[in-house]
Design goal:
The chain is of the alpha+beta class and 50 residues long. 40% of the residues lie in helices and 26% in strands.
Length: 50
């Protein structure tokens, strides 16, 4: 799997996904995707598993 992709989860349901690419490393892409989720008030299953 590539870093930078996360599901968008609202109210316990997956309603879409977000993908970020172009940063020098998958971990930075994932951090940008996570920041986007937080900005719109959504979560992801991966975030809750941590």
């Amino acid at each position: 799997l590539l870093g930078g992709g996360l599901p968008i989860e609202i109210g316990g349901e997956i309603v879409g996904g977000i993908g970020v690419g172009g940063a020098p490393g998958g971990h930075l892409d994932a951090a940008c995707a996570q920041a986007g989720l937080e900005t719109i008030g959504a979560g992801s299953k991966e975030q809750k598993d941590k």
